[in-house]
């Protein structure tokens, strides 16, 4: 079976080829309910149609923009020298009453068509702001928001309505076998009443209909609850917070609350949340490929002011005025035109579709064979009694019963619930992870995380708290400790006025963050943790953010990014002069400095000896686990270079040491990973000494482990990398390209399953390349989140370990469910087939088989596939690549339990009356009810057995699984009702307490059988990796290799 599954039902967790997706679809031949089975499977035809539509719309948009640009150039040339007149057009009554001076559609068309002429005719950006009644400095007034939403619309896109509960009922009724059984039930009612009278002839058919109703309702309720979970998760995925200025203060609002007139702040990695026009900014580069298909960056400026929703900020920062939202944006119009083709199915879903196909074929053969045997025996008996030409209603009922039993065997045998159990388990895991601060964006990631053998993690914010404070500063040749309770007075008094002035200027001028007053009057800093720490330090020294910004005019900004590792700003100062400020990675800033601020405030040259001293200061700070930054400036006398920020010749002001403490629980989480066979590697842009100090504190860097800088690593040959990587534990001063190279080598050279964290725009390639991309929810940009498979909402490494734990739980839970279901399949098929061949009747009726199908399918999945993870999962190695899904341990348990149940049931089927001392008219009915009852209790106790496939104690943590307990109680309760109350409908009779006790005892003996089976050693698979556990896990390394 495994070879067949690998050949036909093998797909990658990410970016699987269309050929592989089509191959497994064509291999699925037996499906009872195509609509339900493939509901969570990507529609390839719809996806291809969507892609064609997207390209067509992008092409139209490109052509429209080119034509518009050309037309505007032509018009400008024709009207050169002519005075522009004001554009006159009628405003709608609603817009006039609201007090706005421009119609929503007109406003939207200006940006959508990139019509600079029309924009200028309305007075430019300031004119538009006036017409939408907003101040470019203060933004929207909160009391106007509802009015703006009413006039200009909400920032929401039209979505198709969610599926209702009755749609899921309809899906469940599409099952072909259930439809056939319903027809059989109706015919049975008609023939039964005609032959046996009312109400006796009514019971059999009604029993089947009632059981079908129960199956359909339970299935629909389960599917509907799953859909609600996925819908809630989908809403979480779409939650984006946007920074806006409202009522003069900068604040964060959900993207859906954005209105026309809002002043939006944009920075690297942001998604442009609506259509708008550029207000101000520096080096703002926009990637419009998602909208127009063009890969060339668009540089926004007052000359090119148009910004479109759905595009990404690739570099720089800026502010925009929102002009249209929701369905009036080009992005909204694009989204409504396209229909989603669905998400790729996970490897487990595909594999279980294969298992269901194989078992379905066997079940179909057994169903047909059973019907042929029952029909042949019936015809032979009639022939022996010379009644072949004499047919009655009773004969018709017998043939109908034989056909219904055969169809029901197929219902039970085709495990339609197997692939859907994966979806159920993943939905449950995703909901639980959401509560634990991990948002799973792609289903397969939750599953793949169980196989992760390596985690490449960032340092800042993931291993550390991301609550940064300036702890030390080296200035004027002296290192000083910054004490918070001293109010900065001691440090401030030790610095001359000129040195303090230039230090505060470098802090407040060269920043991408902002100091604002909240509604409560408190001072808040909006920006990155590093910037926040510097600004807090500046405020502690008595600086004032607004005062410093008023005193000079910012001419040009080069924002920080992971490639440059520095931020620079050029400001105009008094006297027509200019000054450049630069801050960033200490080694890089030190290289571009040739002077230093001395103790008396004068500048002096940096000698080679002084440079070495400063380098040792940086190393000393780093060895104390401090993040080091250098602050520098350069005065520019030559106004000819006023538009260029210099690349060298700077004067060093200070070295700042920023403390970012390690998160509580990280060391334990790293130890947990090592115990689980997951190697943790730190990949950071920080100084190598800082990285080593933090890595040692976290337990990542161990004795004999290697720490290396990113550029050094990438300069190595493949052969050298092959030797280095097994020992590599820390990569410092790494660029995003270095991280991408490491991930690629780990996956290609060492065949590892790699999880990688990222937060920046440039981390997107590494997140995409990794088996599992983990984006940071707090520090992460929208571009990083869009390329990730999981978003870690609290940026905490412990949460990543929880994702790994749940990934393992999903895989194990599905194995448990498959083991349980295959056992029920085999026993139900064989009991009815053997009985049909020998006695000419089936002990389990249609109604009883439908009830068993419900127990093993929907209820079994709910009980076993939703069990929470336990700590033992993180004491075993990762799930290996290409291991057998149905392992030899599982086959041992399945075959052993099946043999036990078959022996017991067949024994009672043919010797039951003698063994149980049954006599009288209802002896056969009592025996059949006893067999049915015993069979159900065997499944109840085998469900408990399936909770652990290897360990004897199957009751461990059973009370923590409320779903399991609830389903056990529900199953037993309904079994009692079926036997004692619903006898006429279920073909049962009430049983004595002795027979009830014996049924439960025989079922409970399967627990003893399970203990015996688990003592039988299982021969290992020769093709598997060495020292592989019988459940598909690789043995943990021991000795020095453990690290």
From TrEMBL:
> Might you give the EC number(s) for this enzyme?
7.2.2.10
Listed Pfam families: CaATP_NAI (PF12515), Cation_ATPase (PF13246), Cation_ATPase_C (PF00689), Cation_ATPase_N (PF00690), E1-E2_ATPase (PF00122)
Q: Where is this region: Disordered?
A: 1024-1043
Q: Per its UniProt record, what SUPFAM superfamilies does this chain match?
A: Calcium ATPase, transduction domain A, Calcium ATPase, transmembrane domain M, HAD-like, Metal cation-transporting ATPase, ATP-binding domain N
Tell me the ranges covered by the Calcium-transporting P-type ATPase N-terminal autoinhibitory domain, including all copies: 5-49
Taking every annotated instance into account, which residue ranges of this chain make up the domain P-type ATPase A? Answer: 239-335
Sorted UniProt keywords: ATP-binding, Calcium, Calcium transport, Calmodulin-binding, Ion transport, Magnesium, Membrane, Metal-binding, Nucleotide-binding, Translocase, Transmembrane, Transmembrane helix, Transport
**Cellular component per GO, a single term:** plasma membrane
Name the protein family. Belongs to the cation transport ATPase (P-type) (TC 3.A.3) family. Type IIB subfamily.
> What is this protein's name?
Calcium-transporting ATPase
